[in-house]
């Protein structure tokens, strides 16, 4: 068995510490704070906010429930467009989690969908406490045109974002590796993109430890 170098051992220990910090951060009791239907009703500027964005039915609410260990904290549905407002969640630990309306297809009148999209764009452009947006991409489908439009907006407003692949358990290992590589290549030259892509599954828990660690680090 090859001997582990001191640098590699230090890296392993550092990663283990990050994972544990993330676990403890999300072990706190998380609670629903409020729903925000319009940019005028946003809460006062305060704690750091991180937001989850993605196409309708990509699994944002399921991911939040898996991260916090609270079944039913964020409402889930098989109907695209169920989340219609900005939903705020907190554990009192210094970071607010925001579940955003899904963009793209939704089973709702066009006027209502347009108002959700306007709310999303206004929030992403103007929220000074927004530290990072986690853009959720269905691993089975990869980046789509409306995903790229959102990345363009985040790049233009210099809002840091990181790609999170959802439903990764639905792919075979080789298929998941291919999607990760293709996604990495697509965001390589994007100025606001975090280079690390996290593959997750709300059902199996895949990647949740890494995502918890990333979010907990933003509370420092």
UniProtKB/TrEMBL annotation:
The gene is engB. Necessary for normal cell division and for the maintenance of normal septation. Belongs to the TRAFAC class TrmE-Era-EngA-EngB-Septin-like GTPase superfamily. EngB GTPase family. Its cofactor is Mg(2+). Transmembrane segments: none annotated. Residues 46-220 form the EngB-type G domain. The keyword Hydrolase does not apply. GO terms for cellular component: cytosol. The keyword Transport does not apply. GO terms for molecular function: GTP binding; metal ion binding. It comes from Kaistia soli DSM 19436. Keywords: Cell cycle, Cell division, GTP-binding, Magnesium, Metal-binding, Nucleotide-binding, Septation. This is Probable GTP-binding protein EngB.
